[in-house]
Amino acid sequence: MTVEEYNKAVDAYADNLYRFVLKNLRDDAMAEDIIQDSFEKLWMKLEEVSALKVKSYLFTSAYHTMIDYIRKEKRNMVVDPGTLYEQGESDHYSDLGEVLERAIRNLPENQKAVVMLRDYEGYSYREIAQITGLTESQVKVYIYRARVYLKGYIGSMEKVI
C-alpha cells in the first residue's frame, strides 16, 4: 500500500469506522482514540496490508481494540441497580429511535457489535466473521438472538406511538 492509498483510506473509512465504534461505546473521546489507534496500526503495517483489504483491516483492528477496552472497563465497573432497565419496559415513548438505542445498549457486547456491523454498516456475514474472528454460523446466531431481543424489548408499536 502506498502513502496515497493510505490517505484515500483515511478519507474513505474514517467516518464509518468512527460511527461504528461510537455506536458501541457511546464515548466520543474513546472512539476517537480507537480510530486513531487503528490508523496508526495500519501505518505501521503499510507495506504488509493490501489496498484491497484495508477496510477489513481497519474494522478488525478497531473491533478488537474496542473489545479490549470494554473488557477492561467491565472489570472496573460498579453497577448501580437503579440504572438497570428491565426487558419490555412499560414506559411509553414517542420516538422509535430512542427506544431502539436503549434496546441496543442493553445487548451483550458481541451481539451489539455484529448487529451494528450488519445493520448499520452493511457488512455481509462473511465479512463480519472476518472482522470479529467468529465463525459465520456464530455471527448469524448472534444477529438472530439480538434481533429477537430487540423485537421483544420494543414490543408492539402501540407502546412506541
Key descriptive features of the protein:
globular; 72% helix; Rna Polymerase Sigma Factor, Chain: A; Arc Repressor Mutant, subunit A; 161 residues; 8 helices; mainly alpha
Specify the structural class: mainly alpha
Q: State the major sheet.
A: none
Q: Spans with pLDDT under 50 lasting ≥5 residues?
A: 81-91
Number of helices: 8
User: What is the average of the pLDDT values?
Assistant: 80
Specify the CATH class of the largest domain: Mainly Alpha
Choose one word for the global shape: globular
Q: Any idea what the radius of gyration is?
A: 17 Å
Percent of residues in beta strands: under 5%
What does this structure look like?
The protein has about 160 residues and is mostly helical. It has eight helices and no strands. Helix 1 (about 5-25) runs antiparallel to helix 2 (about 30-45), helix 1 (about 5-25) packs parallel to helix 3 and helix 6 packs across helix 7 (about 135-155). The longest helix has 23 residues, at about 5-25. It is globular and about 50 Å long.
